[in-house]
Amino acid sequence: MKFSFLRSLLPFIVALLAATILVTSQPIQAMPAQNNHGGFDVHIPENTPDNINEEDEDWGDDWAEEEVTSPWQVTGIIEAAYGQFLQSNMTEKSSSLNEIRARINIDYSHSLFELAWKIDSRYDAVLDKKIWQTRELNVAASPFSFLDVKVGRQVLTWGTGDYLFLNDLFAKDWQSFFSGRADEYLKAPSDSIRTNWYFDNVNFTLVWTPEFTPDNYITGERFSFYSLQMQKIVAPRETFPVTKTNNSQWSARLNTSVNNIELSLYGYQGYWPTPQGGKATVENQAQGYFPKLNSWGFSALTTYAGGVINLEYSRYNSIEDRHGKNNNIANGQHRFLLGYERELAKNLTASVQYYLERTANYQALLENSTTPEQVVDENRQLITLRLTYRTQQQTLTYSLFSFYSPTDHDAYLKPSINYQYNDQWLFSAGANVFIGKDDYSFFGQHQDNTNTWLRLRYAY
Fold first, then answer.
1. How far apart are CA 189 and CA 213, in angstroms?
2. Residuewise pLDDT in 10s, the chain (460 residues)
3. What does the alpha-carbon distance between residue 299 and residue 255 come to, in Å, rounded to a whole number?
4. Could you tell me the strand order of the sheet in which 277-280 lies?
5. Whole-number Å distance between alpha carbons of 123 and 91
6. Bridge-partner residues for 400, per DSSP?
7. 128 conformational bin, left if phi > 0, alpha if psi -120 to 50, beta if neither
8. Cα 12 from chain centroid?
9. Nearest to 440 by CA among 193, 191, 231, 162
10. Quick check: helix, strand or coil at residue 10?
11. Strand partners, 256
12. Residue 240 CB neighbour total at 10 angstroms
């Protein structure tokens, strides 16, 4: 198991622990001899009867006999999962998911800091290999009353969207999302330093990732996809060459609450999370890369008419193609989201979202594109609906999440059933259904990837 990612963060971990110990440590003072009540400074009035003092002494003895809770906590899961394509696909395997997974969660709680370590291992029969991953390994501390710091590998997220990410540009795992793994695996980990600053009514969060962490995007190993260069659906055994970057990325959020409305401002400086750029190599071969990206945005969330309403906006500035004339780099975008969620009946919840993605410098994009007929609509629209019904004392959950784009003429359906048999056993089943008019649209390219899946999880 490799821990090379800790090299760049190790000095910050050591400095964090040292600062926390220095700031929070206090000289040890001797306790008065008469205060012998389990370490508490208990004041007994002078007119208190002697029998009350005896009861207090008995109480102190009972307190001392209580079992001390260990600072260590070890939990984990063992999970088997299988998914099958519902039609022929050009991928090497006919299964979309076929794995056995084991995860160990180790948590240590100290008065000065907390340590979290999640080790995830699995045998993936689709890729025919064993995979070890440190999903989390971080130290969290509060060196000052107004500051929380977390250093190391961690899963980061923010924003108000449901499966729609505007200002959340942290790493995602789309292969997990399309294959039927648990939703927690949609959020990929990154090696970062996260600081939370608390003021009167404002919280400020700053995240620095020393080495840019991209999404785990579709490559052809597990799912087929549309290649704009080859003008067809492909599933290459060897992924297209992509130039990686070792530069850092920054994310920031300013959060407050005004009249029961949660307001947030966001900022990002880094790169597109998927390889939205292309360039020719010395051998004149096409090679993808991650162009520079800056973004800013805001969100608002509050209760309304018995439910929760959310609004979010983000402006993507494609730094390397400000005027949209480079056909090999994604244009900038305006992203807008409006959502609403409420309970329709007992145990039945519904949520709906409207998403608009407006491409900047659209005319320049059309004029410089070699395939203008395949260019996404200037105002790409998406409507989502989530229905969730819980029954049998909340142990059985039926869920349906649907995406529909009236501009792309495609859709994506995610039905699922979860049954929590007891505290240890969880049974899950579902499907990923893709529908589309054109092979080159966002969901249409995945029609052959339509699959059903089953999962059995044991937690300890």
1. 8
2. 444 555 555 555 555 555 555 554 444 343 333 343 333 333 333 444 444 344 444 545 554 556 778 999 999 999 999 999 999 999 989 999 999 999 999 999 999 999 999 999 999 999 999 999 999 999 999 999 999 999 999 999 999 999 999 999 999 999 999 999 999 999 999 999 999 999 999 999 999 999 999 999 999 999 999 998 889 999 987 767 899 899 999 999 999 999 999 999 999 999 999 999 988 776 767 789 999 999 999 999 999 999 999 999 999 999 999 999 998 999 999 999 999 999 999 999 999 999 999 999 999 999 999 999 999 999 999 999 999 999 999 999 999 999 999 999 999 999 999 999 999 999 999 999 999 999 999 999 999 999 999 999 999 9
3. 9
4. 242-243, 286-289, 277-280
5. 19
6. 387, 415
7. left
8. 23
9. 231
10. helix
11. 202, 263
12. 16
Q: Which residue has the tokens 């400086």?
A: 269
Rounded-to-integer distance, Cα 245 and Cα 291, Å: 10
Q: How far apart are CA 414 and CA 452, in angstroms?
A: 10
β-bridge partners, 383: 354, 404
Q: Phi then psi for 198, rounded to 5 degrees?
A: -110, 125
Distance in angstroms (rounded) separating the CA atoms of residues 6 and 191 = 8
- The whole-angstrom separation of Cα 324 and Cα 30 is 71
Q: How far apart are CA 121 and CA 113, in angstroms?
A: 27
User: Under a CB-based contact definition with an 8 Å cutoff, are residues 441 and 409 in contact?
Assistant: yes
- Residues 364 and 376: their CA atoms lie apart, in Å, by 13
Residues 6+ positions from 85 with CB-CB distance below 8 Å: 91, 94, 95, 96, 448, 449, 450, 451
Nearest to 224 by CA among 233, 215, 216: 233
pTM for this structure?
0.85
DSSP sequence for 39-83:
TB-----TT--HHHHHHHHHHHHHHHHSPPPPSEEEEEEEEEEEE
Question: What angle is formed at CA 183 by the lines to CA 227 and CA 457, rounded to 5 degrees?
Answer: 120
Q: In a 3-state reduction of DSSP, which class is residue 266?
A: strand
Name the DSSP letter for residue 320.
Answer: G
- CATH numbers and ranges of domains, the chain: 73-459 (2.40.160.100)
Please state the separation of Cα 45 from the chain's center in Å: 55
Tell me how far apart the alpha carbons of residues 258 and 301 are, in angstroms, rounded to a whole number.
11
